[in-house]
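If you are new to this repository, start here. Below is one unmodified record pulled from the training split, so you can see the exact layout before writing a loader.
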Amino acid sequence: MLPTLLRRRRATMRGDDGIALILVVSVGFIVTTLMATLMAYTVLSVTHARKEQDYQAALSAAQAGVDDYLSHLNANNVYWQSTDCANGAMQRPMPGARPTCGWDSTIPVGWRSLAGAQTPSGVSCSTMPTPVACTVYHYDVDASGTLGNGTISVTSTGRSKAVSRSIRVSVRRQSFGDFLYFTDYETVDPSNPFVYGFNNTQAASVCARHYWDNPPRNPGCVNINFIDGDTINGPLHSNDAILMSGSPQFNGPVTTAYPSCQPTGGAAPPASSCYRNGGNASPSFAKGISYVNRLPLPASNGALQAQTVAATATGTPGCGYIGPTRIHFYNDGSMDVWSPYTTTVNPGCGNAPFSSVAQRVSVPNNNVIFVAPVPSGQTTPAAGNCAPGAIGGYPQANDVNYYYGEYDCRAGTLFVDGTLSGRVTVGAQSSIVITDNLTYANGSASGDSLGLIAANSVEVYHPVQCTRTDDNGNCSAGTNMNRPGGTPFTNPTIQAAVLSLQHSFAVQMYSLGAPLGTLNLYGSVGQLYRGAVGTGNGGATTGYLKSYVYDTRLKFAPPPFYLNPVQAKYISAVFAEIPPAY
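And here is the target side for that same chain:
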């Protein structure tokens, strides 16, 4: 009996050993599976992290390509006009019989590595051929529209291992359209007869200086300051030291070339170092005030005239007229032109010779209109003022401006008004006189755009009949006159980018006559000297109050062929990522 029980017990024990083995094997399998899964997840995570690093590195490389092109432009401001055959980052296949730089359709795309970069193993990325582990960039440049719209399109591609990313950036120079209000000298124009008298050569000599120049501006020169109640709703720049009194409000960024505003040791000075205190000054800078280098005005607007000459124009030439001219814009994209001394004209700009009767022509869209003086070889008209009404109703008899020689009949003066449909820049070798509202047909947010660039002044028309003269025979009191349309110019609206290269944006005879309301400007103002639009303290006694609003479109889409500051830097204006180009 006992042996039988023992045999049964041993059999039961052998059955338990099998179950334990199964358990051990099962646990091992589960642990192995978990470890394999963990390892796979770890490898996947590392791979994902590596791809993410490459993804970000490729974008950084694309931006480095844009920065590289900007550095070339700022070292040579005509760099965009040709292809740099020594720049490997620009190399690409170019089909054609005579490809640029000899780069034919078989040439490989050129890549450049980041300066000083190395592979993870320490190999310099400047080694040729470039190691595969290096992050590189390539860029293509399109400057086909640069002369017209001022922008250069740069498509830059960055590559890190197998990942490529491309960005397209519009590059442009700093423009006068970057500012609602731009001034070179914070002083009254030395040619202002109400301040300095007529033909004051001393004022012209000692006032055409910045406050900080050596020698400085003469203390006797009259400065214009910002005061209580002044509100600037847009960016402002002055090459001079801005004079402040009271609490003017600046709602956009303010910049100045005043040397005391320069950072020291990388630290910006207090705002009070960036302007002159004219008395209890406590200006408010919503977006700060800072130092930038001086932005000089061009010496002339001759580049605009060149665009109206077939031999020097980019593409189709614009419309050039001779002698005093009047233009009235219509909302259908046409304009009336009175230009009695124009004897030749480009196709599409009218039928020469012109007469005192208006001709209806199309606005030269995305182009230029320029009014030049009567050439010396043309004997008519005689020097001196034009006869009253000779230029489409202008000038007017009994107007003080007429007797002060504003309307020389051989000068390149333009009278302009109307409703513009299209994009055009209008230039004049003498002055531009705005005789009525000047607005956009399709609204201020449309594609309409107008530039007004005068070598002399841009003026708001203000005819005055003199009622009293001083001991020197100068008019000291007067009354507002009606314009040829039958009314004074009250509450004018001007939608344009305005630029005066040698004088100011101002109102004619601003210190005479009764107040005329508010001068409403939507766009920008650039000028050599501060221009006056009226007189009064807390309200207009004569002339106008000001309401200037910045047209933000000017920062990215200036009027065609609009002039830029001399030596202005190139900057990135618009950025967008696009599908990889390579």
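Two things worth knowing about this chain: The chain has three domains: 1-173+569-582, 176-296, 321-557. Residues 2-75 form the longest helix (74 residues).
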